[in-house]
Each structure stands twice: as C-alpha cells, then as structure tokens.
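Example record for the data management plan.
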Amino acid sequence: MNEESTTNSLLLDMLRGGANTVRDVREASTFNAGVTRRGFIVVQKSGRDFMSQPNAKTWITMPGLRGIGKTTILAQLYGDSAFDGAFKIYASFDRIKTIGATIQDFITACEDFMGATFEEQTQPVALFLDEVQYLDDWAVGLKTVHDRSHKIFIFSTGSSALNIISDANVARRMDIVKLHPLCFTEYVLIRQAHDNRGKAQDLRLTMPIPGLANTIRDAIFASRNAADAYEKLYSIRGQVNQYWASIPYQRNALFGEYLSTGTLPFTFDIPNQSLIWERINRILSESLDRDVTSYARFDVETISSIPQLLFLLASSSETSTLNLSRKLNINQRTIRSVLEALEKTEIITAIQPKGAAHGKIGKANKYLFTSPAMRAALCGFGGVITPENDSSLRGKLLEDIVGLYLKRMFLDAPLTRAIVEYDTTKGGADFIVSRDGTKTNSISLEVGANKTSAKQAIQTMAGINGKYAVVVTSGQLRLDATNNVLWVPFEYFFLM
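Corresponding structural encoding:
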C-alpha cells in the first residue's frame, strides 16, 4: 500500500468514527444538562434556516480563545435534530495534520466516505470541522467545496481562524460568529448544571429573563442623560431582583469565582483554584506554541520572552511598547508584532487611547485580558499574587470583565460603528463608549469594587463633552443628578 492510499485509509477511518467522537464530546460537556450558550443559539438558527432551504448554502466560522467551548458548541450543533436529514461529517483538523494529510486529501476522503462527489450529492451535506487552523490553506480548500455544491453547510472552528482569512474571496463567502468567554448568566447556568449532575432531573436552572439584557444595555449606553438611564433601570428592578433571588449561591462568593476562574467553562471540572490556574497556564503555553508563533515568524529569543511579556501585562499597568522593549530587550517593532499576534489569537484585547478612532493617536493602547481568568492565572501561579491579597489585581480583573462585555456587545458586533476607548489623561476614566461611533453620544465609564467617588468618570465626561458618566461598582443603583452620574451595581451590569 503506497503512502497516498495509507493516508486516505486513515482519513476514512477517522470520518467513520466521527459520530462516536462527537458523542464523547457531548457526554463530557454540559450538553445533556440542557445548557446552551448565546453563540450556539446564533449558529443553531443558521443551521435550521439552511435545512429548511438547503439550496441556500451556508458557511460559518467560529474563532475564539482556546478553552472557551467552541468544540462543545460544534458537538451540540452536530447533534441538533434539524440536521437529521443531512449527510453529516465531523473532523478535527488537528488529527488530520497528525496523519500528515492535506486539505485536498481531506476533501477526497469526504467524497469517498459519501460515495459521491459534493456536486453529485442529492441530500444536504453538513461539515462540522474543528481546529481548522492546523491545516495550511484550509480556508481556500473549503472555499472550493463551498462553491461546488448548492446543498452544503460548513461550520468550522479555530482558535486563530481570523489570522488566516486573508483572501477576500474566502472572507466574502463565510459568516464570522466569534465566541467569547462566558458572560455571567452563562456561567451561572453551567455552574448549576455541573452542581446538579446526578441529582433529580426536575431541578431548574436559573435562566436569563428574556429581554432583560437588552433593556439594561440600552438604558446604560443609549439614554439621554444619567437621570433618564436611572429611571429605566429603576423600572426593571423587580426583574433584576427576581433573577438574583433564584440563584442558590452566596452572591459575593459567586462574583469572586466568576472573576478569577468562571469565564472559562472547562474550569468547572477542576477541583481547586491552583489546579485551574495551572491548567490555564498550560493552555496559554499551547496557544503561544501553536497559534501565536504561526501568526508571525519570531526568533527563538523573542518566543522565549513572550511568557514574561504576558506576565508584565497581567501584573502591571505597563503598556508602553518603549518600556516593554527596554524591559525585555526586544525592539519596539517586534513588541508590536507580538502584541498584535496575542490580539489575533484572542488572548488580549486592545483598547485604543482617546481620540484614536478619530485619527488622534499619541498614546499606547491599553491591553486587557480577554478572559480575566488568564490574568489571575498568570499572577497567581505559584501563589505570587492573588485577587485575595492584592486589591489592584481585583481592580484589573473587574476592568477585564467590563472590557469583555464591551467587546462582546460593541467591538465584535456585526457591522458595528461603536467606539470603545480609554482616557489617557491622568486620573481619567477606564473607558469611553460611543454606541454609534459619534462623539456626541459618548459616555465615560469607570469600574471598581466599592467605589465611593465618581471623580475619574466626571473628569473624563467633561473632557470629552460626554452625555453622562457611569460608575460600575458594588452597592445600590443610584443617581447623582447634580453631576450627571449613574451608579450601576454589578448585579445589573453582569446581566447584560
């Protein structure tokens, strides 16, 4: 048997075992607990629309940070009853690369597996493809399949998929549905599902109240002034209280766990915080080895310095490329390339300085961690710094969480015009947000635990001639009408 036929045989064995592989993924996840995430609901609708009109071919790519549940969502979609009438194929491109196969080898094996070419298939074909970034030219290869069939649904995931979509013809054919770390209501659902495993089947999960997230978001970011926002939030206090009353956990402990570990779904199966942080650091190392280094060619010295760079970003407020360059003895151009690679692989999120969206750039970006659990793990590994013994770290984790919400709601929204910046002025607010991208609709936003002063938010509001200021903190919903400031409790903000 020659090498080509051996590769094809291995690929066919993998495709035949695809259904069993997906079943194992489902059984190891929250699938049977009835937990579905926002990202799944979006792709499920696309899948069902396709199956109701299979001539309307569909290609969805879901990029996102490692460890946030892309494979679980793929398994959930594969098992959705809507696809019962389709010829389903599952493959992990990580395994295909291990076999030594190419994207064309995979396409050939799919047609052998189906017993017909993609053009000849009479029933809809659904491809569920995990970790696609492991194969060179995966996007161009799948484009050829997409173009050859009028009855094909492709759902592909990848931790660094957006890096590789450089071909405009490819990008035009696919829809991007980015998966983010868990929002708070998703975290509560999965926490309850895990805690209830093996218990009575009639135990109810605390579901988000329909429409509440949008109402809170519109009140905070799209009101006329702070008083208008306060009135809107005050009018829904009954629904907010209803949600919190249904959660069977102590609130402060729940907040603490969510900040330090709860944004990553795999952490629920790990028994203690130290082991969680050890696992997160392993995932970070894997992402640096496989994803970050594939984005650009870095020399050995630079690659060995990236973990130290991440620690500097996690443990300090330092974001100046000049100072990072001096500390790491790496030139600024390389530092910028590394930071860009960390962004593309979703490890960090860049918040631009005030005025950058309108062409005024004079300061460095501020870098937040896309999952605060990664900052906590980098700082807490070996017990060096923890949220319990360092209040500044707690503040950074809260800033990461708010940044995560702003990224999900605005920066990664389809066809967004929103602007999210930070105030570079000393004593300025953490964020400046304009939902429609105009200066006239900008608000200043400050976040922190037990905040007693709105000075920073007020200062920034005055500097940008903003609509109003928002302080996200613990405590009660309140209004400072004199200074045009809205105080938003975490209990409201986390429900968006």
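Summary line stored alongside the record: The chain has two domains: 3-176, 212-493.
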